[in-house]
Please model this.
Amino acid sequence: MYESQVGYQLKKAQHLLHLLCEKRLKTLGITLSQFAVLTAIKHNHGITNAQLARDSFVSPQTMYLIVMGLVNKGYLQRKNINDDKKSLSIKITDKGIDIVEKADRLIYPIEKEMAEIIGNEKMNTLYSLLSEYGNNILAISNKKI
Model:
């Protein structure tokens, strides 16, 4: 049965975590994708739209829409790099930093809550296994067939 496959369980857990995060972030008026982008920009000043898209596993067009939504809310600013109209730097505003800090207080406790339920040792093991699993998938995908 597919329920016994690791990929199915990964997707199920990811989906449920996504729903929980979306539920908590809805109180702030942002989505999980917007939170992820704001967090990435907060920690990578001057990152470009293209780099954000690569790091977030979405197309540049999708990232553009997310970024513009955040610009319209006043959470981000876009500036030309060296007078190049095609290269734009994205910076987080004070309002954006404030919303990220509020969101952090809603999202990051989820792992703590899970650790309280299943225990720190299992959480550490889960992290290690998922990291190894992802690295091995990447290695397999890079092999020539």
